[in-house]
Design goal:
Helix content is 80%, strand content 0%. It is mainly alpha-helical.
């Protein structure tokens, strides 16, 4: 679903990226209200709202998520979908770096090498293309930090409840902006026919469904599997950018992407080997029993 997003957002023009994000917040909140009502999980939502620490954490997550949405929509509408795909390729490397800097985890040799390749990719693209790929870096940083924050609350807050609270925190700002936009005569909702308004209204489903699937997957699947599947998103976005939008791919970009792909291969192989060793150790412990 995330992989085909670049094909959807151009349909919402002439709405601006900021207006699209505001609609994403409002319609996602309405959908979450319906889902919470169906699941009868109002008590969980109230518990989160009463917990100041939890609410503050999710407020930070909501700000990161909104920033990520805004940068991505801007990138697609401004013809920088290739940069957006690069950002989500870099994201796993940023996640590893955050694990070291914030959580104090120790990196294995393969992870250090992968981090070096990722940094080299940014340098190659910057020097060869003549500009810093700030769209890619912003997307990777905001989603990496969002994943870090969600990791701190993922075991205690359900997927639907978390998204409901995050959109609830953003809703006053989004509604205020949309109100001002329409009062000034610049709002596009309803001004370009029922079809356009319907597409804006579907932003709730378009936004919430993949996020809920992602949150549910992280609670059910090994992190290594989730990481590998996530590579599908930037690959699909790159294909759309090059084959559908005909965005330029000069040599510097190809070399930069190649370095990122090498880094991701190293991370994937290292993660697979580590998971396999851990599984074998667990099996051996179960067979031999706990140490005396």
């Amino acid at each position: 679903m995330w992989g085909v997003f670049p094909l959807f957002f151009p349909l919402l023009e002439p709405a601006s990226p900021l207006e699209i994000v505001a609609h994403r917040v409002v319609w996602s909140l309405l959908l979450c209200v319906v889902l919470v009502a169906l699941a009868r999980s109002w008590d969980e939502v109230r518990a989160v709202l009463r917990d100041r620490r939890m609410l503050g954490t999710l407020a930070v997550a909501s700000a990161l998520l909104a920033t990520n949405w805004l940068v991505f929509v801007f990138a697609v509408l401004a013809g920088h979908t290739v940069d957006a795909s690069l950002g989500y390729y870099i994201n796993p490397i940023v996640t590893v770096a955050l694990a070291v800097m914030v959580l104090g985890e120790r990196m294995r040799t393969a992870q250090w090498v992968a981090l070096g390749f990722g940094a080299a990719a940014v340098v190659v693209i910057t020097v060869g293309y003549g500009t810093v790929p700030w769209v890619a870096l912003a997307l990777a940083a905001t989603f990496g930090l969002y994943g870090l924050v969600k990791n701190r609350v993922g075991r205690t807050v359900g997927a639907t409840t978390g998204l409901a609270v995050e959109t609830l925190v953003l809703a006053p700002v989004a509604l205020g902006y949309l109100g001002w936009l329409h009062a000034s005569g610049h709002g596009t909702f309803g001004a370009h026919g029922a079809g356009h308004a319907t597409l804006l209204a579907t932003l709730g489903i378009v936004t919430a469904l993949p996020l809920l699937c992602f949150a549910a997957a992280t609670r059910r699947l090994p992190l290594s599997v989730v990481g590998l599947v996530q590579y599908l998103t930037p690959t699909m976005q790159l294909v759309v950018a090059v084959l559908v939008f005909r965005e330029e791919m000069p040599a510097a970009r190809w070399w930069g992407f190649a370095l990122v792909w090498v880094a991701l291969t190293l991370l994937s192989v290292d993660g697979w080997r580590t998971a396999r060793r851990a599984h074998r150790l667990q099996q051996r412990t179960q067979l031999d029993g706990p140490p005396a």
